Amino acid sequence: VTYNAAMGALGATAIGSGVLLFNLNRTAAYANMEAEGLHPADYPFPQKKMLGTFDHASIRRGFQVFKEVCAACHSLDLVYWRNLVGVAYSDEEARAMAEEYEYTDGPDDQGEMFERTGKLTDPIPRPYANEEAARAANAGALPPDLSLITKARHGGVDYIYALLTGYTDAPAGVDIKEGLNYNPYFPGGSIAMAQNIFDGVVEYEDGTPNTASQITKDVVTFLNWAAEPELDDRKKIGAKAALLFSSLTLIALWIKRNRWHTIKTRKIVFNSPKNWGKSPFDKSK
To answer: Using CA atoms, how far apart are residues 91 and 56, in angstroms rounded to an integer?
Structure first.
């Protein structure tokens, strides 16, 4: 009894500790929030649901926000103009946007590099030629590439949304160095990037209200698509696989129940011979 009680108490302690740690990890305020930043809330992005998919109209608006606001400092090296075709833009629209930029190509027949208009096979242009130029233009801070940013940060889309909408005045007693901005969701609370998203900072072509929260939601959706462009297809394949394996499981259970029941319910009885101890070579009666 003592052993069983001890094991039960140990198991209850382990389960309770796990539940406590899980809740602490999900809580916005916790002991180490100054070093790691506040944990973001759970925002209702549709693509986060098990069978949810991207809002492609939001992806289109989000790319507009990226072009007009984010692209001044941040790169998007893993996204090409052709990736936008069939997702947020038509072939003609993506081609026209690419042709707005000049790209260095070559060498030509004389071995010289030359400038040409953009093509669908070109990547989204960088704002700076190299890392040194990016740091020089941003007081030593390096704006990260946003291609995989929603996968590279703990909290994913929730963290990015909370960060972009979380700028506020520093509380009393918190010293923010010159050139930095206070954001409680950023580790340490001080971030070099200033607040760039406000009401009306972009004008949507489809008439969607251009509030700060809507603009942030759209650009975060676009960045989530940039990091996981296969998300919709992956969920579609997963649903098909779940349906297929469920059907196969039901078929297997039916076969086991209806084809093997004669064997599994068969009773084997052994009746020993009357003269079990007698040698077979003994001819006597």
So the answer is: 15
Cα–Cα distance, 227 to 83 (Å, whole number): 12
User: What tens digit of pLDDT does each residue of 215-233 get?
Assistant: 999 999 999 999 999 999 9
The CA–CA distances, whole Å, from 57 to 48, 79, 173, 236 equal 17, 18, 44, 19
264-278 tens-digit pLDDT = 777 777 777 676 666
Q: How far is CA 32 from the centre of its chain?
A: 24
Whether the Cβ atoms of residue 80 and residue 121 lie closer than 8 Å to each other = yes
- For 178, the token pair is 């010159």
Encoded amino acid at 107, one letter: P
Between CA 159 and CA 116 the distance in angstroms is 39
Q: Phi and psi for 228 in degrees, rounded to 5?
A: -135, 65
Residues, the chain: 285
135-138 long-range Cβ contacts below 8 angstroms, 24+ apart: 137/73, 138/73, 138/192
Q: What φ, ψ does residue 44 adopt, rounded to 5°? A: -85, 60
Q: What are phi and psi of 102, to 5 degrees?
A: -105, 135
